[in-house]
Amino acid sequence: MIRRLYDWTISLAAHPRALWALALVAFVESSFFPIPPHIMIVPMVLAAPHRAWLIAGVATVASVLGGVLGYGIGAFAFDAIGQPILESLGKADRMLEFNERFNDFGFWPVLIGGLTPFPYKVITIMSGWTGLPFMTFLVTSIVARATIFFILAGLLWKFGPPIRIFVEKYLGLVFTAFVILLLGGFYAIRFI
Questions:
Q1: Residue 97: CB partners within 8 Å, gap ≥ 6?
Q2: What total of structural domains would you count in the chain?
Q3: Which residue segment(s) compose the domain that 31 sits in?
Q4: I need a surface site. Which of 18, 22, 37, 149 has the fewest CB within 10 A?
């Protein structure tokens, strides 16, 4: 079923209303849909490089708005909606432990979830459930999602099709390594 969703999502990139489809996918991915908008951004920017910044902007705005929906699910409907979504992602067993430590880290979980391959929807729901301050969530979501979508669009705009394999296979790892180095740097400054 995931493969069919993935193929369907990619096919939307060639649709005449692909920008609206991207907005929809970015919105629902931030709260419950399993396929990330990144897979649509790649073919859309390669097909129309002059629209790279518009594509990244639409993905950012829709993703953050979807994140607000995820936050609302966590804050107001966790038992009815949020918990089943997290259970379907295999994250239910760690929810209580996660809840206890989540807010201690401030904006970091949102930044990490927004930049890395970790499912952003988990972070949006957990942010609402744990009561992370909404403005912290919102600002960090904007920074994280804009960073990843604009860097992705910028790489595709600048280097075109030759960068596609790198982007599809390694960009998530690069962002993960960046976050690890960033956290390591803060740790070193604080404790060394």
A1: none
A2: 1
A3: 2-191
A4: 18
What CA–CA distance (Å, rounded) separates 95 from 102?
10
CA angle 182, 183, 187 (to 5 degrees): 120
The per-residue b/e assignment along 105-116, b for 16 or more CB within 10 angstroms, e otherwise, is: eebebbbbbbbb
The per-residue pLDDT string of the chain (192 residues; one tens digit each, 9 = 90 and over) reads 566 765 676 677 777 788 898 999 999 998 877 778 888 888 888 888 999 999 999 999 999 999 999 999 988 887 777 677 767 766 666 666 666 677 777 787 888 777 777 788 888 988 898 888 999 999 999 999 999 899 989 988 999 888 777 777 766 666 666 666 655 665 666 666
pTM for the whole structure: 0.80
How many contiguous H segments (helices) and E segments (strands) does the chain have?
10, 0
